[in-house]
Task: structure prediction
Amino acid sequence: MLLTVNTGSSSVRLAAFTPDLKRLADAHDRDAGGAAPRLRAFLHERGICDITTVAHRVVHGGATLIRPCVVDKEVEAEIAQLASLAPLHNPVALEWIRACRDVLGNDVTQVAVFDTAFYAHLPERARRYALPRALCEKHGLRRYGFHGLAHEAMWRRWRVLRPDVADGGRVISLQLGAGCSITAVKHGNPIDTSMGFTPLEGLVMATRSGDVDPGLLAFLQRVEALTPEQMENLLTRDSGLLGMAGEDDMQALLARDDGDAKLAIEVYCYRVRKYIGAYFAALGGVDALLFGGGVGEHAALIRSKILTNLEALGIDLDESVNRTAVGAETRISRDNSRVDVWAIRVDEAQILARAALDLLTRNTIAQGVSG
Result:
């Protein structure tokens, strides 16, 4: 049996699969507490006792961990080394890797699947920062991209929904949750994405700032005498919706009627709309726009606000259908819309499980050939 562990910035999702990828159980856990007790509770409550493989979502794999791999001491050390670039994610993934070892034993195979891997081959023009080449080469400064599993899951689902679109066409996918990102995919290949060297760049998020003028950050460091750690906490934990309106939950903000909440929502949606326009240009036109993630799947008003005044791009939203599309896979554009717009349930667990099984199958074949 295979277990998937999907650690996000604010929760963990666990799922158990049979070897033929039939889902047996899953859970979405937002409670505090150590990883090991939560894992034991999941296994006990669902009567699961024969796990042989664990597949972990790891947010940052850097320049070298660009495909799924079995977790050994070297891989674990590299994930730890990259923790400073994904401080809300990589340390939590490591905690769960160690908890699985403690609870399930050393004989259980653990596989790491990296969010950044989807973007390993971004075009040079999209991944390069306009910084001195020597500095970039010395420190590995480039745009890595994140949420790769979510965007891949949406892309794969789109291919099932519209197999008639040659090579999948041109797609913009939106992952809107506690973390938010947007990706442009052309014929299956990502050509740009909003997150960069870290998961901070791009869209406004629950507690992360998204795009900020670097000069503003240098100014704040001077006038507030901020240490690097304080600056990191400011940008990752105290900004975004929380920083603007004192609340990081979109549904709670939508229920409020004060100016701070309204402005935070407007800034959030406007930032997404700007990126959609930019990616239309990058792709040279779009066949589909896909909404995923907790906000993308459940917040109809946010989808509507994001798509305001985009009719010139061929987006014709069906407002009545959009209002009822909550947590269910639905086409929310009108039949005559030049661009298909969908709310899609993102199944990262399936991507994790398939990646782990494919890796182990390849390893078994390779061992048989070498033997």
